[in-house]
Amino acid sequence: MSKHEGTERGGQSNSDNSEEKDSAAVKALFYNSKTTKKPRPPKPSNAVTIAVSSRTLFNMVKERKVFEEEGLERYVAHQLELEDQPFTPGVSFPFVKALMNVNARLRELYPDSEELFDIVLMTNNHAQVGVRLINSINYYDLTIERFCMTGGESPIGYLKAYMTNLYLSKDSMKVQEAIEEGIAAATMFACDSENELSDTQLRVAFDGDAVLFSDESEIIVKEHGLDSFFRHEKEFENKPLAQGPLKCFLEALGKLQRKFYAKNQRINCPIRTYLVTARSAASAGARVLKTLRSWGLEVDEALFLAGAPKGPLLQKIRPHIFFDDQMFHIEGAQELGTIAAHVPYGIGQKYHKGKRIETSDAEKK
Question: pTM value?
Fold first, then answer.
């Protein structure tokens, strides 16, 4: 072998080594950027803050069973043993992913704006469980930087401090407590089989009475019947309904929607809202629409069902979340694959399927 050939081969070897090093550096940069260079969270004063419990974000059914059957110490030890094993997604996971998609679109249009969704993990888990939660969040590449882990105490007292616009939990008592504090909140329910959801558009469906609006009209239905209700709504058609517990969340969604409209993105807006109400349109719909108008709010689609089941329509809409105050509507949605969230507010909590719940039965629920 000539010296020249050896030099050429040596040069080729050095070149190969250099290319391998460059390739490794690029890969390292990619993985580091994926794990450490997530977008910075917005300032709470500018953000739409969504607080989710760990049991809605992740499936923790097995862990919950350990806690209930074997106690806190064994539960914490169990979590530490599985620290490097990510949780599987929970019922609010698709909703959170959709929020992050909206944020990505907003950052494209407004690189310096902090008017974004900010997701906060709100949990009464012990701080030692936090490492597994962090590992799971990073595994799924979620942008969740703000945590509240209260070590067995209720986190509800912190919701206002975190400037929460919506709180989602599996604990109905905590949700009730949040609503009493004036915070939009709902109890989430999973489905055995969920509908395929949009990857590019956040879809949120709301019931009307006792969700977006107060329960003042629903009280008349329950206590005096439909005929009295129709007369009442006609008489007060031009008087706006009082706001319900989720009105402020619709307002927050509308604020972000308008940012897309300002960039001529109404058709391609990644947020779509729906009113899905059991009201009749001709007999009782005008007051609802005029109320929204008086608030300066709008929904993309208003669906008046005149008492028909909501489940089939929701199956067509395929929302990431559907809010309703009555459990039989929640159950109907679940049966057809819709992720539903119960808002425990108003006179509807005293009734089930149109029949008043006796006090002793209500206490059991």
Answer: 0.85
361 counts as catalytic: no
Cross-strand partners of 340: 189, 322
Residues in the chain: 365
Q: Using an 8 Å Cβ cutoff, are 75 and 63 in contact? A: yes
The burial class, CB within 10 Å (0-12 / 13-18 / 19+), for 140 is middle
**Which of 95, 87, 91, 84 minimizes the C-alpha distance to 62?**
87
> What residues are paired with 49 via a beta bridge?
118, 164
Three-state SS at 360: helix
Question: In the structure encoding, which two tokens stand for residue 309, read together?
Answer: 């089941």
Other Cβ atoms closer than 10 A to 11:
10
Q: pLDDT digits over 67-111, tens only?
A: 888 888 888 898 899 999 999 999 999 999 999 999 999 999 999
Catalytic residue among 118, 171, 207, 209: 207
Burial 317-340 (b: 16+ CB within 10 A, else e): bbbbbbbbbbbebbebbbebbbbb
